[in-house]
Each structure stands twice: as C-alpha cells, then as structure tokens.
Design a protein that fits this description.
Elements: H1 2-19, H2 23-36, H3 50-55, H4 59-69, E1 96-106, E2 109-117, E3 132-141, E4 144-152, E5 157-158, H5 159-172
Antiparallel strand pairs: 1-2, 2-3, 3-4, 4-5
Helix pairs in contact: 4-5
C-alpha cells in the first residue's frame, strides 16, 4: 500500500510538472503551424479555436480575442485576422529549423523564444537574412502554463495589442 501511494504521488507530481511546462502550449501552436504549412498541408485546428482559447491561452488573452473577433477581417469569416499570425503573412514556405526555447520566469512570465525558417523557398535571400522569431509570453493560471501574448519582431509587435486595436477600431468604426 505504501508503495502504491508513492507511485500515485510521483504521478501527481509529474502531471503537475507537465501541466506547468511553459513550452507545452507553444509547441502545440508551432506543430499546428508546421502541419498547416507543410508541403502536403494537412487541415488542422485553428490556432484560436474555442477549445484552444479555453485550454492553452490565458483568460485575458481569450477575452481580448473574443472582443476582436466581433469584427472579422472577412464578411464570411470569424477571425479578426486576414493573415497567419504565426508566420506573419499570407504566404509561407514549409517551416524548417524550428527551435522552441523557454527562458527563465521573470515577473510571473516565461518568454518562450521560437525561431524558424519559412522563407527558404522564395529564392535568394538578402545577406542579412535572419530566421523568423516569435516570443510567446507564457504565464501560469490554475496550475497550467498558458499563452498570454505572442510578440513578433519588427513593427507587428504584440498580438494582444493588435487584437485590442482591432476591437477598439471596430467599436469606433462599426460597419
């Protein structure tokens, strides 16, 4: 009986450690991107499906997304985006050289850095070419690691900020 109790406690500790892994929700999103942009693209689940919003994103991010989704990018759509927010465009090559690295937790957030090459099929690149880079800001809610924001390098910046902008613009300029 004592041995069984130790096994149960060890499993519970492993389960908690797994649930709080900051790279886990990021890996899920990146694997979806890999599938969607593969040479033989596979249909999959939207990055922001109802199930995912409730499972791997923070409550605040989900709320922000829902507010922006009231103003879809296309008349027949339900997404506030008219591009793939992970590859930062409407066109992409298959994703190669994917790297997901969780940094240390700071102020309750873990910066999970993601780099990948999604331009290898576009021909010759500039000499200063660098891989695409994203920073997933992961927090812990209810013992689970969840994505609170996705920060893209360059002008696009915070995805959560973009969602807030879409929602506020939609409210001030209803169609």
């Amino acid at each position: 009986m004592k041995r069984l109790m130790l096994v149960v406690l060890a499993c519970a500790a492993f389960s908690t450690a797994q649930a709080a892994d900051p790279a886990a929700p990021v890996n899920e999103i990146m694997q979806e991107a890999v599938k969607g942009w593969a040479e033989e693209a596979q249909s999959g689940e939207d990055y922001f499906s109802k199930a995912r919003l409730g499972r791997i994103y923070s409550q605040d991010f989900a709320k922000t997304y829902h507010e922006a989704a009231k103003f879809p990018a296309y008349d027949e759509g339900d997404s506030p985006f008219d591009y793939d927010v992970i590859v930062s465009g409407q066109d992409s090559c298959s994703i190669k050289d994917l790297s997901v690295t969780a940094g240390p937790q700071t102020d309750g957030k873990t910066d999970v850095k993601v780099t990948f090459d999604n331009t290898h099929c576009f021909g010759e690149r500039a000499s200063d070419w660098k891989p695409s880079e994203l920073h997933f800001m992961v927090i812990e809610e209810a013992g689970k690691a969840v994505i609170d924001d996705i920060v893209r390098t360059g002008e696009t910046g915070s995805l959560k900020g973009e969602l807030q902008g879409i929602a506020s613009q939609g409210v001030t300029n209803p169609q």
